[in-house]
């Protein structure tokens, strides 16, 4: 992988640091990024994944932990993910049988029968947590110093959790902006009726940005899935009390959405990471988990689960369409022409810009 200047190496004086088009800011590689669901990588098999234009082979031996290598054999650059996992847990290239171990060392060139002949391939630090396989694509010496994130309420028996992993034709920053800005509920009027977001406040720091909202129903019928999670809300013409608080937080590079009821109890917990796939990072694979608090009668949530899944899918498809339209406009106009007025999103954009890494196509913007 081409070495890039990380966010921690950016100029300390941010006021004098060059500014770049946000859609030309790559993610900082010095974090743990999910690249596959655990269930996709079966024992004794290899699986092809990607990170920002770099092919990754995930290998799960029959015994022992999964590991990650560059998905190119050092011999003829054939994908190692097409190979065979041997009884020692090594991956053997499908072409000539070169074998590589968990550290990427070539341990066998079978037709020469001597050591030190084959070249190694790049190995990535790899961890498995909460049903996801993570790699650390940056400086491997930093991997043990950076924690693998905690994810929603996976493993908490009081919650029921679903996975989602859509692919979107847009830069990952559009996804952060979309979720953080709850003022776009007009987009979802067909799914949710007429509701208004009420901004309750924000917090921010060097590596995070959080905004809090409540919602008031202004008309239309409340969707069944929403009522099952939050309870029934009606518009009776009066000022509606704050029943739930929705907190959206980008803790770079991850994003969460949590909903607490009026008593302060957590009732929904969403975690998402937007994995860039292509070299320009304008295609994104989202990995997300949504945890919903089980009601007293658990079977009610089980019965409603398909309805909830359909509801969230429809909401996401509307978001997908609009962020992909934003990306298309960026291409047609030759850059970011967005006019942002919401202070929360302005702060978020600043966080994403200073935390990421300008890519090789980025040119400093004129100051002013």
From TrEMBL:
It holds the Pfam family VanA_C. Keywords: 2Fe-2S, Iron, Iron-sulfur, Metal-binding, Oxidoreductase. Signal peptide: none annotated. Gene3D superfamilies: Naphthalene 1,2-dioxygenase Alpha Subunit, Chain A, domain 1, Rieske [2Fe-2S] iron-sulphur domain. It comes from Acetobacter okinawensis. One of its GO terms (molecular function) is metal ion binding. InterPro entries: Cholesterol_7-desaturase, Rieske_2Fe-2S, Rieske_2Fe-2S_sf, VanA_C_cat. CDD domains: Rieske_RO_Alpha_N. This is Rieske (2Fe-2S) protein. Residues 32-135 form the Rieske domain.
